[in-house]
Every structure is written in structure tokens, then in C-alpha cells.
């Protein structure tokens, strides 16, 4: 082993640090496995909830609720261009926050060839959330 290579112990420590601050994502199809995920992670761990384009958004909200019931902090991961209007996006987020306690969202433009709404092409300033349990620990 060269002098610049980390030792096995140093690598193990670094791997443990990475895992301690890792994030995970679940899909609606993994809904049934969330109890086990909740048992494996510390309470209030941040769990991203995918919204696959081929699945109804209602399934994503059901999964957000299941993540919350498992004692974890759900973060919907949605594609902005999938929504037909800002109102539809607002309604989805209102349900995620109001009904299921989401603190934040991962909102991406996405790779949808044709946005569902012409207004989804223009970036808009959003207000910041008041608080979140989803922070990386150092």
C-alpha cells in the first residue's frame, strides 16, 4: 500500500460517515417495504419519494403517507413538467404538506419531451420552507 492510500480502518470510518448521512429514495411500487425501511433508519430520516411518470400521482401521495407512518420524513421527488398547471402542482404539494406532513420537495424540470403546461417552461421563485428534518449531518 502506498503512503497516499488510506488505510482499511480509515476507509471503514469514511464509509460509515457516508452511510450516516446518506439519503434514500423509494418508489410507489416499494410501498409495502416501508415498515422495514422505517425500522432500519433512525426516526425522521429523510426519504425521497419518487413520482414515476408511468404511475398516477395519487400513488406518490399514498407513498408519502406511508413514509410518514413509518416514522420517516417524506420528500416528494416530482417532475414539474408533468403538471398541467401551477394549480395542479400547488394542489399536489398542498396534499403532501397538509395531509402527510412533508416539509420539502425535490422539484426537478424533468426530461418530459413536451411539458404538460406551457407555463412550466418559465422558472418561478418559490418561498422557502420554514423548517425541515432533512438535513445532512456532518
Shape: globular
Mean pLDDT: 80
Strand content: 5-15%
Count of DSSP H/I helices:
4
- By secondary-structure content and strand pairing, the structural class works out as alpha/beta
Spatial arrangement of strands, main beta sheet: 1-2-3-4
Q: Spans with pLDDT under 50 lasting ≥5 residues?
A: none
Helix percent reads 25-40%
**Termini gap:** 28 Å
Descriptive report:
With 138 residues, the protein is α/β, with parallel strands linked by helices. It has one domain. The chain is 33% helix and 13% strand. The chain has four helices and four strands, in the order αβαβαβαβ. It has helices spanning 8-20, 34-40, 57-69, 86-98; strands at residues 24-26, 46-50, 73-79, 106-108. β3 (73-79), α4 (86-98) and β4 form a beta-alpha-beta unit. It is globular, with a radius of gyration of 18 Å. The two termini are 28 Å apart. The mean pLDDT is 80.
Amino acid at each position: 500500500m502506498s503512503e497516499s492510500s488510506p488505510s482499511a480502518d480509515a476507509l471503514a470510518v469514511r464509509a460509515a460517515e457516508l452511510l450516516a448521512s446518506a439519503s434514500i429514495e423509494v418508489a410507489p411500487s416499494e410501498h409495502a417495504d416501508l415498515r422495514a425501511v422505517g425500522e432500519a433508519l433512525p426516526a425522521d430520516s429523510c426519504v425521497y419519494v419518487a413520482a414515476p411518470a408511468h404511475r398516477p400521482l395519487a400513488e406518490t401521495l399514498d407513498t408519502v403517507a406511508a413514509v410518514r407512518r413509518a416514522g420517516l420524513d417524506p420528500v416528494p421527488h416530482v417532475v414539474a413538467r408533468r403538471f398541467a398547471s401551477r394549480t395542479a402542482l400547488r394542489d399536489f404539494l398542498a396534499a403532501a404538506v397538509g395531509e402527510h406532513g412533508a416539509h420539502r420537495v425535490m422539484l426537478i424540470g424533468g426530461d418530459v419531451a413536451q411539458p404538460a403546461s406551457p407555463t412550466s417552461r418559465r422558472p418561478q421563485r418559490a418561498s422557502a420552507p420554514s423548517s425541515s428534518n432533512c438535513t445532512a449531518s456532518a
